[in-house]
């Protein structure tokens, strides 16, 4: 088995990269899987130039490029590609992209399409994988190790600053979870 990441982050928006930066400052081993492209009609980027480090940012694409560059400055691995398969077994997430398999102890998801495809909410807020993804063959509740932010979190507004904050919160919740399983 390849090296196991503490955190796999899926997405390509302000929340995704903010989560990666916060997780990296805690020295967690992580990888970002870029799954979709943000378009300026999807989010309200007004005021994003007021975020520290993102001054003089005027467009959606320049905002994403700057925050992505900041993420790379923390030595975070960023992998581009379409997810071929997604699974969960023995408390590990297994994601195949191209010819690479990525393993992780926890997920931060900033991609509603990925969330809807592989996970669904059940009664009492539990998160259960869709049929075929839980390789243990059970209805495993993964709500303690999957954290939603940005476009995957239905309660989050689509304003850039709020999305970035949701990434921060997801990273902090994930850090708390990882502290419990050490």
From TrEMBL:
Keywords in alphabetical order: Flavoprotein, Oxidoreductase
SUPFAM superfamilies from the UniProt entry: FAD/NAD(P)-binding domain
InterPro entries named in the record: FAD/NAD-bd_sf (IPR036188), Ferredoxin-NADP_redctase_2 (IPR050097)
An example molecular function term from Gene Ontology annotations: oxidoreductase activity
Domain of life: Eukaryota
Transmembrane as UniProt keyword: no
Gene Ontology annotations of biological process type: cellular response to toxic substance
Similarity comment: family membership: Belongs to the class-II pyridine nucleotide-disulfide oxidoreductase family.
PANTHER family: THIOREDOXIN REDUCTASE 1-RELATED-RELATED
Protein name: Thioredoxin reductase
Record organism: Hamiltosporidium magnivora
């Amino acid at each position: 088995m390849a090296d196991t990441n503490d955190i796999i982050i899926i997405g390509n928006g302000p929340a995704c990269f903010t989560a990666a930066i916060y997780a990296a400052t805690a020295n967690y081993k992580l990888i970002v899987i870029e799954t979709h492209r943000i378009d300026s009609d999807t989010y309200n980027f007004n005021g994003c130039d007021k975020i520290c480090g993102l001054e003089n940012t005027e467009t959606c694409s320049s905002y994403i490029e700057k925050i992505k560059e900041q993420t790379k400055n923390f030595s975070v691995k960023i992998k581009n590609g379409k997810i071929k398969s997604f699974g969960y077994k023995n408390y590990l997430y297994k994601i195949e992209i191209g010819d690479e398999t990525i393993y992780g102890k926890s997920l931060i998801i900033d991609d509603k399409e990925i969330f809807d495809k592989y996970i669904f909410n059940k009664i009492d807020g539990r998160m259960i994988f869709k049929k075929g993804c839980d390789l243990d063959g059970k209805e495993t509740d993964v709500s303690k190790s999957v954290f939603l932010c940005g476009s995957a979190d239905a309660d989050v507004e689509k304003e850039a600053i709020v999305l970035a904050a949701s990434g921060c919160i997801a990273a902090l919740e994930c850090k708390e979870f990882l502290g419990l399983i050490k």
